[in-house]
Each structure stands twice: as structure tokens, then as C-alpha cells.
Amino acid sequence: MHSLWKQIKITMNQKYFIGIDISKGKLDCAVILSDYSVVAENVIPNNVNKIKSFLKAFLKKHKTEFDQMIVCCESTGIYNGPLRQVCTDLNIDLWEEHALKIKRASTDMRGKSDRKDAMRIAEYLVRYRDKAILFKNPSAALQALDQLNKVRETLLGQKLALQNQLGESKSFDPKGFKVLSKHYKQMVAQIENQLKKIDLEIQDLLNQHEEIQQNINLMKGVPGVGKQTAMQIIIYTQNFTTFKSVKHLACYAGVVPFQNESGMVIKRARVSKMASKKLKSVLHMAALAAVRTKSELKAYYIRKLAEGKNKMCVLNAVRNKILQRVWAVIERQTPFLSEENFRPI
């Protein structure tokens, strides 16, 4: 089995720490040294050529090498694309951190500007560089799977919106329903045909990459986990190569409750808001499916509700248990065996 985690080490000879505040049209860059002295501050367009030109010019001016640089930015989704590509092409270490963690770690929050934000990111990088998790570009297969899955989700959303509108119109506006039905049913049929094509493309892609297909098949054996849930987990974990442990993944997925205590005040443990809402939503749907199937998770759910536990707390525990089972089957590369398979002789 492939390694679940590749340990990432920050080289100690890194000299230049670059904090970048990313927006749609531009990047605000702050370059500092380990003693927090400022080397440069620049604003550059957010495109691949300009970013490359800036970094190469900096390298030439300061007579340094790319391995002496490390870049940190906030996770801003698609706007990070050009910076990711440049750092991958030039082999520069890139750390994408949660914006809220950077904000809470800042010692001075007076004033707000893109320039100040870039400097705060650079200072955060210097202080916490030993905890950096470097960006790893997904494989071409995973990128293709991610794009196909996004197209599929968009089409499903459009289909649901049209069907909901038709349903409402049929119940409350029969005359309007005839007009809508004439056009919307054709659109729904076209979307359904396109969805079938997308599903075939996804399956063709999986057939070409046995290691991904095998992991999906293993996960599908876990109660509540279907093909779509398994694919989402594959995408978010880059086929289980970006998380060092199941606890690490569970924190990222937002299913781990943290203590909330201060002195004599003890509040209910809550999950962190610094989590992937999408992955958490996927696991929530898996948990709802699991508690409706004949499994130990359903028995656990019923037992905890009977004990008076909060419904959402129990569902969160089920989400966590599903993730634990998913990790176990991938780590061992063996199918899931329920408790029913271990009846005493």
C-alpha cells in the first residue's frame, strides 16, 4: 500500500519568507527575514507570467536560489491557482493556511489593508514555519476527477432547481405549469443526458487508475458510504496522501469536538469552525444514510438517543466513526467487516 502521509520538512537554510495576500486581480507581497526585517513589498497582477517575473527578478537581485524561499498565503480557492502553478513549476515551497488561524495569531490587528495583511502573513510564516504543511499539487487524474465531479454537482443543482420550480408551479399555478413544463422538461432531459455522459467519463477515468478505483471500492463497504461520498473523500485527501493520521483528517472535516472550559465555567464541547464545510456536509449525508441501514452505527444512534443525547451530537459521532472506518480500510487495504462478522462460535 502507498504511504498515507509523506512527512514534509522545512529546510533550515530558507532565508526569505514571503507573505502574499491574494485577491482576484492582484497579489500584495511582503518579503521578510527571520528577524522580521523587511526586504521588499510589492503589488503584482494575479497571473502566472507576472508572478514568475517577480520571483525571478527577486532571485537575481538578491543573488539567491529558489530553495531559500518559502511562500505563505491564505486559502482563497480558485484565486490561488496562478501562485500554485508558479510555485510548482519553480519548485518553491508554498504553505496555504486557514485565514482565521492567521488572523487569530496576529499580535496587532490595528488597521486593515491588503499590504498589512501580506505583512501579517509573512510574520505568521516566520513564527510557525516549523508547523507548515506544504502545498502538494494533485495528480492529473485527481485534478480531472475533481473537475468532472464539480461539473456533475453543478448539473445536479440545475436539475433540482428546475424540478422544484415545476413542482411548485404544478401545485399552485396550473396555467403557468403548462408553459414551464413545455420548456423545462426538455432542459431536464438534456441535463440528465449530460449527467450520464459525465458518469461515463468518471468511470472511464477510474478504470484507468486502479489505485483510485480500489480505494473507492474499499470505502463503499463502509455503511453509509456510496460512490459519490468515496470520490469526495478521495479528492479532498488526494487519495489519502495529504493527512498524517485519521485524527488529522477528522479535524479537517470538522467532526472532532473540542473542550470549551475556563476556570469553573465548563461548556459543551463543540467542533471547530476552521474545517472543510463541504467534506463535513458529505460525511453528514453519509451518516444519515448509515443510521437508516441495518448496521452497528444504526444501533449506536438509537442507543444514544435513548440515553437522552443530543441528536446532532450523536450524528457528529457517527460522522467520526464513518471516517475512522474509512481510514482503517484504506490503511489496511482490506474490506470492511462489521461487528456481525465477529459473532462468537
Write up this protein.
- This protein has 345 residues and is an alpha/beta fold.
- The chain folds into three domains: 16-131, YqgF/RNase H-like domain (Nucleotidyltransferase, domain 5); 140-208, Helix Hairpins (Orthogonal Bundle), CATH 1.10.287; 227-342, no CATH class.
- Helices cover 55% and strands 13% of the residues.
- The chain is built from twelve helices and seven strands.
- It has helices at residues 48-62, 81-90, 99-105, 114-128, 140-172, 174-208, 210-219, 227-237, 246-253, 277-290, 296-306, 311-332, and strands at 16-22, 26-32, 38-45, 69-74, 93-97, 257-262, 265-271.
- Strands 3-2-1-4-5 form a five-stranded mixed β-sheet. A two-stranded antiparallel ribbon has the order 6-7.
- It is globular, with a radius of gyration of 24 Å.
- It starts with 15 loop residues before the first strand and ends in a 13-residue tail after the last helix.
- Residues 1-11 and 341-345 have low confidence and may be disordered.
